[in-house]
Each structure stands twice: as C-alpha cells, then as structure tokens.
Amino acid sequence: MFSAAAESFLRQAREAQPEELQRFAARVAAQLQGPEPGPEAAACLQRLHLVVAASKYPRRLDGEIVGLLQKVLCSSKCPEQIQLLCAAILREMSPCIDLSLSCDNIQDTKLLSLVSSVLLAQGDKKAEVAAVGQRIVKVLEGRLPEGQSSRYLLPVLSNVISLSPEALTEEQTNVVSKKMADWLRYASIQQGVAQPSGGFFSNPRTRQPGPVTEVDGAIATDFFTVLSLGQYYTEDQWLNMQAFSMLRKWLLCYGGKGLNAPNSGNRSEMDESVMSMVSTTSTSSHLLPPKERLREKAFEYCQRLIEQSNRQALKKADGDLQKACLIEAVTIMDIICKQDSSYVYRAAAFLKVLHSRISGDATYARALLPIAQFFLNHGEMAAVDSDAIYKHLLTDIPAQLFHNASLAFEFVLFCKENSQLFTETSSIFRQSFPNLFKFLAWNSPPLISEFVDLLPFLLDAGTAIEIFHLLLDLPCLTAALDVQMRSTSASERASCDPAVKPATCLEAFRHPLYKSAFQYLLRIESAPEDPPERLIPLRQLLGSLASSPRVVQCADTVPVLLELFFSVVAEFADGPLINQLVVLLLQRSDQLYEIPAFKDDVHRVLSSQLVMLCKLHPALIVELSKELLEFSGTVSNIQNKEAVFTHVVWAIGEYMSVSYDKRCTVEQINRFFETLEAVLFEVTQVRPLASIPSYAPRAITVLMTALTKLAARSQDLIPRVSLFLSKMRTFLQSPAVTSVYCEEDREEILTRATELLNLLKMPSVAQFVFTPSVDVARSRFQKEVNDTLPSALRIVTRLLEPAPGFVPG
C-alpha cells in the first residue's frame, strides 16, 4: 500500500488534464534546452514520467518535446540520470509515432542499452527488433573500447529473443553461444577492486583483491558461479552471472538447432556419449561447435551449482539463492539432455544422489519438482526406477506443505502439465489423488482452473467412486486440515481423555473415537476398500467450522468439479459403474457437510446428473428398483432434497417402460405406481390449517405426471389415477391449501391435473405418448414429443374442452 502522500501524488498525476500536461511539458523543454540540465531538470523529468506512467490511458506529448527527449537521450554531455529519465518517458509513451531513434551507429554500450530499450518497447515491429538484435551481437562480437562494458547489452539481448527469436541468424547465435560458454566457464576467481571515491581521505594505494568465497565462507577453489561471493565483482564475473540468468531462455531458443547437421546426425548414441565424456577437458572442448560447446560448459556449470548447494550458507539470503539456483540448474540440465541424449546418463546419476540428499528437507520441496520432471522425461532412457522419487513427491510433499500457497500452485501446475506422462509411466499418480486434493481444499479459488484440467487424468473406473466421495467431502477436508494445523500448534494442544467424549474439534483430533475417521479423511493415497460411512459422525463434529471463509470458498468449487466429474465418467462408465454411482448419489444426497447453500448447489448438480446417467443406462430403473422405491417412497425427501426427489420421480415415469428394458413387468410398474400414489396422497391430504406442510408445486406436478405415465403402460391403473386427478380441484380449493400455496402455484398444479386427466380420456393417445414402441422411443420424433409434452397436453385439453360459444356441427 502507498502512503497518503504517495496516493496524493498519484491522484494528481492521474487527474492532470491534457492542457496542464502540455504546459508542464513546455516547462520541461525549457529546462532541457539550458546549457547543462541539472537537478531541477531531473526533478521535472521525474514528475513528467509520473504523469505519463500513472494513467492506464496513453498520454500524448507534442512532437517537439518528443524530439527533444530523443536528442537529450543521445547526447554524450548529459548526465546519466537525465538520460535514464528520458528513456523511461519515451518507453511509457510507446508506441510513439514521432520516434526517430536508431541504434545503428551507437558505440557507447550504456547508451545503446537505453536506446534499444525504447525501440523494443514500440510493440510488434519485427524489423526494429531484428535491427536491435543484430546491432547488439555486432558490438558483442567486436573488441570494446576502453571503459565500455558488455554487461549492459545482455539484458537487451534477452529481451530481443523473447520478442522475436528469429531475429538472429545462425551465424549470430553461434557468436553469442561461444561468448556465453567463455563467460560461464572462465570468469576470474579473484574479487573485483573497489573504485576509489576520490575524496580527501581516500587511499591512493589499493589492496590486492582476494579470492571469491563460497556461501559457507570457504575460499573458492573451482571456477566462478553465481553462488561465488565477493565484496566487489569484476567485469567477467558480472557477465558470468548475466549469462546464467539468460541461459535457459537461450538454450530453449537456439540450443536445439544444429543437432541434425550432417556431421552430428550420423553419429551413434555411443559415439555421442564418448564425445561428451572426452569433451570435459578444456582442450577438446574448444574443438566442439559453438552450441555443443555451450551445452558442455552449461552442464559443468550446473554440476558446480548443485555441488555448491550442499554448503551451509552463513546468511539466509544466500541460502535462498542456493535453492533458486539449484532449481534453475536442474531445469537447465533437463533441457540439455533433451537436446543431446549423451548427457542423460551423467545427469541421472548426479540427480539421483541430489534427490537422496535433499528429499528429507522440506525447505527444498520446490527443487524436487524439476528433479521429478527430469526423470519423467529421461527415466526410461537412463534405465532408472523412478517410482521412489514420484512416490515421495506425491505423498510427503502435499501432506506436509498443502498450506504453502505458492508451492501448491507450482505443484498442481507441474502435475497438470505432466498428467499424460504420469498416467503412462506410473500408477502412483492416480493412487495419490487424495493428497493432491489437499492443495485444492486449502487453496480453492486460485487452483480451481488447474484442477479442472487435472481431474480427467485422475479418473478411471478404479478411482471414480472414491473421487466422487472425496468431491462431496471436500469442504469437510478443508475443515479437517484446519484442525490438523491447529493441533500441531503448541499453544493449542488439547489434552485427550479416552473416557470422555470430546467437546471440540481439537480434542476429537486425538480422541480414539474419531481418530480413524480423521486418518481416513486425511489419507495420503487411495483406499477404495475403506467404507466412507465412517465420516458421518465427523461431518457433524466439524460442523462448527462450516462458516469458516476457507471452508465456504472450498464448498463453492464443488459443484463445478462435480459436473466435470460426471461428464468425464460418462465417457467410460459401464452399466455396473453407473448403477453404483446412482445408488451412492441417492445415499450421499443427505450425507453432506452442513452448509445450506452448498447442499442446495450439490442437490441441483446431482439431480441433473441423475438424468444424464438414466439416459446413458435406462435399464438402471429396473435394476435398482429396490433403491429407487425406497427413495421415492420417503415423503421427507421432498422437503430435504426436492431437486433430487423430483428428478428420481421423473426418471421412474420416463424409463420404467418395456421400450427401454425388456425386463420391465406389469408387476414392477404397479409397485412403483402404488409407492408414488401413496406419496402423492400424503402430500395432498387435507389437514388442519396449523399442520399442513408446504411442498414444492413442481414435486406435485411431477408426481402426477409420473403416475399418469405408469397408468398409460398398465391401463388397469387409469381409473385410479383419473379419480385422484379429478379430486385435485377440491384439494386446491380448501382453505388450508390456499393459505400455503399462492394462486400462481395452485393454478399450475390444477392446469397439469386437468391436462393429464384429459389425456387419459383417450387411452390410446396416452399410451402412444407415454409408452412408445422401441423404435419410436429412440427416434427424433419421440424426443421432440417428450421435450414439448406440456404443449401436447394443452392441445388435447383444447380439443376436449371447446371454447365458449362453440356449437358442434
């Protein structure tokens, strides 16, 4: 957050009108046209830069001031601060139509860096990017004048290859590759010399610089790297550090080219391996082509960094730098091995030892990702059993560090990008899905997009049921992780008496009564044989955390993932799996974490997905008749989970037909009819005014429609349902009902009852509409009939109830 003064400055800068800006620009121009711009000119340029940069809308300056800024920028007499500010203003105004800068004839490397930064900021102009890149390479290739430094040019070169890798020719990339190899390997191991200040007390005699040191304070005995420390650094040491910072990008852009050259393409893998081993000496290394030599030096550099990472840093900042360099070194090794397989064997042995060294240290968790990436890419070629590496990564790290938000994102992104490789090479990935979901449970909003991409790779016939349970219990998992974290805090340790029932979640975490339930919910790998019913008491216990913002955020992600779950499962599910899912869907609809909005959303998703499962496997209505009868015969389900109940009743009415399953019998139809009839009777029974419950009108209309469909298929039932429908008007006109249902709801129920009753007056029509033949049931016509059934009912009603004044002929 900015301070109040800074906020005030920013507001003034954003609110500056164009007229004010032009007047101020004229004042700046006057300052710059003086004999020698000084502190006042610098202050004015700083304010101008603030005004130009503070607004998201582009600011425009007159061509005269733009030309003056360019002139001052290129003037060798201007102070460096003035030049920096001029370049910053010109960059902020990009793209600038009045720009006339060129880097062609600039010899000064600092000025070339500034001018290039302005040119590269002009947008997608490939010609300018190429011109800048070629000029930078030309300057790097030649011998620099005294006092000039190449280190100002490498950041510009890095920007060039980011914007347009094709800007450099093969010859130019060879030039830079040769330079980078020397910068990486042959930097001085002596510290730089401090520049004398020139003050009265400055000592004209400078001390001889000492050697650079390692992060643990020991004198460095091997070549210089970014982990070599000194009080001052020499020019080649700065170039060494800059070259490493852009090495990964350079190898990705240019390192792979030339591998298929005639001389190298015919060599066998053994020849390459021998060549790689021989080229470790400096003599043979100089004989290699530039790109191969760069790979060799880069590989040595990464080996040296990994060795340096084993030292105990004296300062925390140096320790953090060690870990960052370790990650980069392993990543670069992986790239080198992709470009030249002869390095794989050396790298695999080296990284196997590294993994053994750091796997027990949680502070190195991020470094385990590129190591695992290496073995995913090259483990088969290196003939290395990598399962232990994957198992440690996918089990220990999520369980211990799920609360680390940045690691969670990197970890899940790594899994998403390698999900195809994981599923092809190791079964551990799918077995570890309970652990991966801990990241999502604790960091729901930032990770939902990644999990949408990841979930399909975790699902198969073996994991579908367990993942279904886990998705429904995801908010409960969040609450359990919260309890786990608080239980490890010394300030919140709770005593545990096995004889006393725990009163809080913290006490329950260690209590034998709940211990197994917590262990199951927080498991690190798949356990399909364990019954999830053990979580029922735990959901009730964790209800006290239902209002936690983290738990609520997690609950909001479940409906999205549930819909994705069913869409993926639909691609491979067979009849038995669909039946199993439907049974669990009915069971779990009232076994959810107590968040009202969460339960409503889940019921909505489950009900819509039930319809999809029935369409995939209509025979489930017959095969699961016992479960469906039990569920649809429970009146309380209408109020507790109306959406699921309504869709179950609809599915019974739609698919309990011989058109969908030859095993459907009249006895089964009669059993469903009697069950639904009893429920509708209970719902529409007239009671005293004080005790009548309110049921959703949709549930009543769906019950009536389902009974009518079943009666059309077993026509002995038509008189019973007709009698029932004829009594609906009396029911809806009773005072007790009118006090509960609004006029619009009563009209909806009565209209549907009248339409169904009229349709039953023509049994043959009702049978065709509700019980089509097998061929018609699968036809487009029947789908349209089902989709437009209310319209069909209204047409029949109008036919049977002529409008007033109609006289039959």
UniProtKB/TrEMBL annotation:
The lineage of its organism: Eukaryota, Metazoa, Chordata, Craniata, Vertebrata. This is Adaptor related protein complex 5 subunit zeta 1. Residues 1-280 form the AP-5 complex subunit zeta-1 N-terminal TPR domain. Residues 450-799 form the AP-5 complex subunit zeta-1 C-terminal TPR domain. InterPro entries: AP5Z1, AP5Z1_ARM, TPR_AP5Z1_C, TPR_AP5Z1_N. Residues 321-438 form the AP-5 complex subunit zeta-1 ARM repeats domain. It comes from the Eukaryota. One of its GO terms (cellular component) is AP-5 adaptor complex. It holds the Pfam family TPR_AP5Z1_C. It comes from Anser cygnoides.
